[in-house]
Amino acid sequence: MIYVAQVEQVSAPPIDWGAMAPLLVVLGAACVAVLVEAFLPRHQRWPVQVGLSIAALGLAGLTLGLYTGSEPAGMTTIGGALTVDQPTLFLWGTLLALGLGSVLLIADRSVEPGGAFVASAASRAAAGGPGDLTYAPTDPDRSYGSPDQAPTMQTEVFPFTLFALGGMMTFVAANDLLTMFIALEVLSLPLYLMCGLARRRRLLSQEAAVKYFLLGAFASAFFLYGLALIYGFAGSVRLTDIAIASAGSARSDTLLFAGFALLVVGLLFKGSVGPFHTWTPDVYQGAPTPVTAFMGACTKVAAFGAILRVLHVAFGLTRWEWRGVLWAVAIVSMVIGAVLGLTQTDIKRMVAYSSIAHAGFLLIGAMAITPQGVSATLFYLLAYGFTTLAVFAVISLVRTADGEATHLSQWAGLGKRSPLTAGTMAFLLLALAGIPLTSGFTAKFAVFAAGIADGMAPLVVIALVASAVAAFFYLRVIVLMYFSEPAADGPTVTVPGAFTTAAITLGVLLTLLLGIVPSLALDWASGGGFVG
Amino acid sequence: MNPLLPVLLVFPLVGALVMHPLRDSPRAAKQVAIGTALVQLALAVVAWSAYSVPAAAAGVRFQLRFVVEWIPAFGTQFALGIDGIALVMIVLTTFLVPILMLFSWEERLPEGRTASGFFALLLATEATLMGVFMATDVFLFYVFFEAMLIPMYFLIGRFGGPRRQYAAVKFFLYSLFGGLIMLASLIGLYVVSAQYLPAGGTFDWAALRTIVPLIPESTQIWLFLGFFLAFAIKAPLVPLHTWLPDAGAEAPIGAGVLLVGVLDKVGTFGFLRYCLPLFPLASVRLAPLVLVLSVIGVLYGALLAVGQKDLSRFVAYTSIAHFGFIALGIFAFSTQAFAGSVLYMVNHGLSTGMLFVMVGLLAARGGSRMITDYGGVSKLAPMLAGCFLLAGLSSLALPGTNSFVSEFLVLVGSYPREPVYTILATVGIIFAALYVLWVYQQTMQGPVRGRAVLAALERSPAGGPGTMIDPAIAASRARSGFPDLCAREIAVLVPLIVAIIVLGFFPGPVLDVVNPSVAATMTEVGLTDPVGGLPR
């Protein structure tokens, strides 16, 4: 009898397959992609992987659309480990769309022949790079498959992307801290690897990967330690239970807030909020640009999705205790991003610092424990994600013989050389600066309005001053592109292939649409609050 | 739902877009551009005739309204409408743009720049200016207020003088900074309105007006300061003015006139439309501060104008002095002074615009903007010198020119309430005579001299220094190095001269349109006229 009772206790919790379908599709496709990598011959992998990834993201989007179309109420599933509520659905949609854009960039082989990725230095040598003594292929990048086939590229990056994306989707839906931690690892480990895959500037890329991994491991440890302390306080890792415990408990708050601090450090690290940002510039610079685009857009969405959920669901009641600290963090982040961004000479590092400043703005929205706070932050993530994606896509187009021309001086006179590329970039930079009629403005407006409405007027004023400072370095690029004469041996602008063109078009179009007619997206974002 | 205003807004934008396919045929591009600008002027005249002064006097605040939903989540609408003040500014803008295009017809552009790009940016600037003056939704106003920077930034940065990059960035950052501070106030206003309105926050100007009496003074002061900073940067009041001489000097003349003549008026327009009606208590409380800044602007701008070596910077500093007068009239709170300020906004656009154009004509001949590079021009180009004098006299508000009426109204209207500031500002008029006449004397009078003039004569085959021919005779010959005005230049100047003289004697039509809106603004501030009433 006792045995039977135990069986009943561990009986599988009910699973709402419909709600979870997008997540399952992405993770399932990731597993299939690993098998593809193992069993298919090299020259077949690229088309299959690309097709699989895009199909998986499309199917996940379709199931998400169908589920959202049935206007579901928010609910928890798998025994309360995951929450599928309105913010989750919005974030999933955002992640899938941004993931699709990133996959398109990653799959592109027209910009860098053979794609931007290699698996290791050995493959680089095999691909005809320096150090190659035994094998001299006629075409340096045609190393795999039969000679009559198009150059192939390393395709591990596709399963990595899908796993990371699956992790991110779990991360934003996690209803307890343990699930969140596991999702954090699932999303982080592939990212560490992807950073080191650059075909060019191998050392920079590998340094970035190691740095990201080491600091990321620390951040995970912080998160886990915080989790443990909070468990000690609340006796549960469930977000709602933590909220209940924090509302009325005789236990000392020390455990709770020490745990909160450590937990938030882990999350802020992922969101590259200053002062936990130190990895960001190096990793953004070192990683292959399509991966940087993926990180810049999707990781930010995932991290802030989780921050939102933790702050709102678990710590919404104790907001007056921690808000002062996060004020300071937001200010530091905005100041670091805006001021250090001014001194950068590498465009990828500059965008990295811009992302740190934006993280500060996002934190203002996340700190506003109101429905507007949630919807504004969600909208900001959507808008920022697409702009960033397109920015990195454009950066990947400007090249010299040695790869991407990321030094700012190389961008001089681009407006004359390639008006379309320069115009696109100028528009995207104005969006990052938050000029009206771009999504950057509507997003900033939404976040700042939520901030002021929740009593953070001084912080918003600081944020606006920081925006003005940050505008200077965006402008500097525009000045370089349009007002300076091009250098004689300047970079060329590669004509992008269909994939990159599609990604850029997607990013620019959404940046424009969300700037002019944001109502639809705003309505989605404010469709409902968190369910715990 | 009158479609006239949206058409006025979109039409120049369409013209700007059409420039792109025409980029390889500059001549066609210029013709299309000026055609667009002329049609736009005609549309503005239609708007003028459609605007009903009796209705405005009867209390209709905005006319020709056009309202559609835009972003309900932010409580903002795409709402257009005009009052008398906006109407005259719109007409001024549409009047100046074709003139500037004609002026820029043969402008030597920096290498690699196309005329179609220049004209497209002029039209885009015109469109954003239309939007700024038409918006009756504060959010929409802000959008145009910031969007206005972008075409002007490219106009200065791509087509300007040698230090154009520096000037363009400085202009953009100053304005953007002010704009962002205003954004904080804007959001604050929205949040405050959500507290008082049952239907939630709004940006609708009229709806905001209904809750103004409920907002406590301390809140008003904070909100006022945000708006004020943005407008004080735009219509540069003294400590915030340093971008204007750079931007004004480096901008190509066509853009410079639009910048100083119209774009900066958005600041004073903003005082009248937003600061005073939406924050009346704060406006009255902080008026002494603004008045001090205005008077400093009048005197300091005039003093610096006297000391300038560069003609464009000279015009920019005279503008700073003029903006001081306009702000004085606005914050003196009387209908006469309000009407004077609005009229001043128009007149300053005309007289400073003409002065800028004259500087451009000089520079086109001598290739320099330095005052010391010119001398005795009246002997070589008497018509040019005469027009320069007229522009200068209009700028110093000589009776019989347009500026006299407005300056007089400002001073008369301000005196009863603010005698001290008015008297101090009156001293500025004397400075104005000094700087204008001095520059005229240095450049136009006396013997033919100056590096630029001599070099221009030397280059020409008609004779010059070193030959036995008298420079004045040489200049009258064909292919002179320093020719007098050509037909196109005369066509540029005639409309300006006519406007300057006509408005000097018959300001009535403009005042009639402006008066009801000015009276409405006075009611919104909640003060009564000290003496007198509307100017007739």
SSE order of chain A in H/E notation? HHHEEHHHHHHHHHHHHEEHHHHEHH
* Number of structurally distinct domains of chain B: 1
The low-confidence runs of chain B, each spanning 5 or more residues with pLDDT under 50, are none
The amount of beta strand of chain A, in percent, is under 5%
Strand neighbour order, sheet with most strands of chain A: 4-3-5
Q: What is the chain-wise order of helices and strands of chain B?
A: HHHEEHHHHHHHHHHHHHHHHHHHHH
Q: What structural class is derived from the secondary structure elements of chain A? A: mainly alpha
* Overall 3D shape of chain A: globular
Commentary on this structure:
The complex is a heterodimer of chains A (532) and B (536). Chain A has helices at 2-9, 17-39, 42-69, 86-107, 121-126, 157-173, 177-195, 202-234, 239-247, 253-270, 279-286, 289-314, 319-342, 347-367, 371-395, 414-417, 419-433, 439-453, 457-483, 498-516, 519-525, and strands spanning 75-77, 82-84, 398-400, 403-404, 492-493. In chain A, the strands form two sheets. In chain A, strands 4-3-5 form a three-stranded antiparallel sheet, with no helix packed on it. A two-stranded antiparallel sheet of chain A has the order 1-2. In chain A, helix 4 packs antiparallel against helix 6. Chain A is mainly alpha-helical. Chain A is built from 21 helices and five strands. Chain B is mostly helical. Chain B has one domain. In chain B, 72% of the residues lie in helices and 3% in strands. Chain B has helices at 4-18, 26-50, 53-57, 84-103, 115-134, 138-147, 149-159, 164-196, 205-211, 217-234, 243-250, 253-263, 265-278, 280-307, 311-330, 335-366, 377-380, 382-395, 402-414, 419-444, 451-459, 471-476, 487-505, 508-525; strands at residues 63-71, 76-82. In chain B, strands 1-2 form a two-stranded antiparallel sheet. In chain B, helix 2 runs parallel beside helix 5, helix 11 (243-250) packs antiparallel against helix 12 (253-263) and helix 16 runs antiparallel to helix 19 (402-414). The two termini of chain B are 32 Å apart.
